[in-house]
Amino acid sequence: MSTLTATNKGAATREAILDQAYGIACSAGLEGLSIGPLAAAVGMSKSGVFAHFGSREDLQLAVLDKAGERFVAYVLLPALQQPRGLVRLRAIVDAWFDWSRHTDGGCVLLGAVSEYDDRPGALRDWVVEQQKRWRQVLAQAVQLCVDTGELGAETDTEQLAFEIYGTALIVHHDAGLFGFDAAVARGRRALERLLRSYAAPRAPAVVAVPSLA
């Protein structure tokens, strides 16, 4: 077997393990990942799994990387094809709402926030950094709305990003409990109300005054 063939086979095996681990993490969380059941699910020995991931934590970090890549590919990249401004911001949020239907049980990223918010270490550091970057993406999308004149010049971009994030959280929360369609409908109404509250003030209409001449 050539070195290239062995490398490709190793990469494919690693991806197969990651795909299986990602599915487990969606339903059971990252703490639900156990090497034994994972190895059995992919038809490998524990040592075979460890050959690709040096530790359980390395595996969990790799799953987080995969979750982040899938999230960006599903939520952000398609929206970037839209014009700058509210059209793009709405596309980001709408895809974010829809993301809850495509996570096979739950969002690994949101689950990780709950799992590691008070547990110092590499996993918490990864989660904090990912969340910071996503808030920055939202704030930048809001700033573009300010630049286009669709939102007021005084808009606090970080505050609005925070409020949009809160809306997405309740949509994901309600989608599992009360149904996706109802949750998204409420989320969209909440988003529109929020955007209206930050809208740029309209210029007063100019009323023609009849000439007295």
Structural commentary:
With 213 residues, this protein is mainly alpha-helical. The chain has a domain at 64-197: Orthogonal Bundle (Tetracycline Repressor, domain 2). Helices cover 70% and strands 0% of the residues. Helix 4 (56-76) runs parallel beside helix 7 (122-147). It is elongated and about 90 Å long. 23% of the residues are buried. The mean pLDDT is 90.
Question: Which properties best describe this structure?
Answer:
9 helices, single chain, 213 residues, Tetracycline Repressor, domain 2, mainly alpha, 0% strand
How many extended strands? Answer: 0
Name the beta content range: under 5%
Question: Mind summarizing the main beta sheet?
Answer: none
Gross CATH architecture of the domain at 64-197:
Orthogonal Bundle
Mind sketching the topology for me?
Layout: H1 3-28, H2 35-41, H3 46-52, H4 56-76, H5 86-99, H6 108-116, H7 122-147, H8 157-178, H9 180-197
Helix pairs in contact: 1-4, 2-3, 4-5, 4-7, 5-7, 6-7, 7-8, 8-9
